[in-house]
Amino acid sequence: MECNKIQERLSEYMDGLASADERSLIEEHLHSCHRCSGHLADLKRTIGHVHELEDIEPPAWLTQKVMMKIKAEPG
């Protein structure tokens, strides 16, 4: 597989959604390609940072405002 194809599939790989064959090809590529393994490391760090973010409660008015906009759309 080419680097761009590997990089497109890294999220699926991380989430366990890649097929066994794809997973094997990706892992083989990652062992020999420092650039793609660097992208994987970056993705892992980013996911780690996202998991560290504090959950925030949306304001009470938000749901009502969104629903009003949805109802106002033609369709």
Overview of this structure, please?
This protein has 75 residues and is mainly alpha-helical. 76% of the residues lie in helices and 0% in strands. The chain contains four helices and no strands. It has helices at residues 3-15, 20-32, 34-52, 61-72. α1 crosses α2 (20-32) and α2 packs across α3 (34-52). It is elongated and about 55 Å long. The chain starts with a helix and ends with a helix. 4% of the residues are buried.
Q: So what's the overall shape?
A: elongated
Q: Unreliable runs, pLDDT <50, ≥5 residues?
A: none
Distance between the termini: 44 Å
Rg measurement, Å: 19 Å
State the total count of DSSP E strands.
0
The secondary structure category is mainly alpha
Number of helices: 4
Largest sheet: none
What share of residues are in beta strands?
Answer: under 5%
**Element order, helices and strands?**
HHHH
Average pLDDT level:
94
Which percent range fits the helix content?
A: over 70%
Describe the structure concisely:
The protein is mainly α and 75 residues long. It contains four helices and no strands.
Q: How is the topology of this model organized?
A:
Elements: H1 3-15, H2 20-32, H3 34-52, H4 61-72
Helix pairs in contact: 1-2, 1-3, 2-3
